[in-house]
Write a structure and sequence with these properties.
The protein is of the alpha/beta class. The chain has a six-stranded parallel β-sheet, sandwiched between helices. Helix 1 crosses helix 5. It starts with 25 loop residues before the first strand and ends with a helix.
Amino acid sequence: MGAVPLTSLRAPVASETGAARPRPTTEVVTVTALTWAAGLEHALVAVHRARCAGHDVRWRIHGDGPERERVVFTIHDLGLDEVVTLGAPLGGGDLYLHPRLDDEVGDLAHWLAVGGRAVATDGRRVRELAVRHPCRLWRVPRRDPAAMARTLVEAG
């Protein structure tokens, strides 16, 4: 018999009236240039999946670039207009999401250095950061929205 994931063992939290409490909101932040290498489309699908599973994930993406139109369309196409903010003022969040398809780690390294928690796609430089921040950095495979959605929910 296989192991049962711990996330499947969590029961809904009941209030005094017996009704399930709403799940807390997970505020996610990303700072990146809007390019193909940012991996934002995979991450948008992950946020959509997490929300479809009943989790309140909200994402602020700070940046601009040549793929802006594609990102805006994907946000709208997935029905995430109310929960994904593009170009919002920089502020804190519960998690930093680093869905990159390359080995760039600039803002991820800064986020971890100041004590933040993050979910990042795996790569050589991300693995190096994971050695220094093992309890605050969750790694997921590149181009895997399902794994990213599960990890956002677990880490959030």
